[in-house]
Amino acid sequence: MSGREWPYKNVPRKIIAEKYMKNSSTSELRDYKFFCFGGVVKCLYVSDSIHHKMQFYDAEFNPLNIERYDYTKFETLPKKPLNFDKMKVLVE
Question: What pTM was computed for the model?
Fold first, then answer.
């Protein structure tokens, strides 16, 4: 097995179904990926995988000028989630 997913080579296969989640204020469900260094959030990104949109932010939710070649930026930047501080605490 080659590629970046090699750690899963010997993991037994199974299907995991999560409860359906819906965001009533937007048509998509946003994904938040946090990046920690030394146990501290340094940056994150918000993505909409259906429409291939993504925006990077610093740890205070200020937009960063970072892009991925396979995603475009949101036309309107996502707003800081109401529970953003709690999200950071849980991640750290």
Answer: 0.74
Segment 15-44 shows an average pLDDT of: 86
Asked if 59 and 43 count as a contact pair (C-beta separation under 8 A), the reply is yes
- Bridge partners for 72 per DSSP: 53
- The C-alpha atoms of residue 50 and residue 31 are separated, in whole angstroms, by 11
For the cut 70, the answer to whether the pLDDT of residue 77 exceeds it is yes
Distance CA 37, CA 91 (A): 11
Residue with token string 């909409």:
48
CA 83 to chain centre: 15
> Which amino acid is present at 39?
G
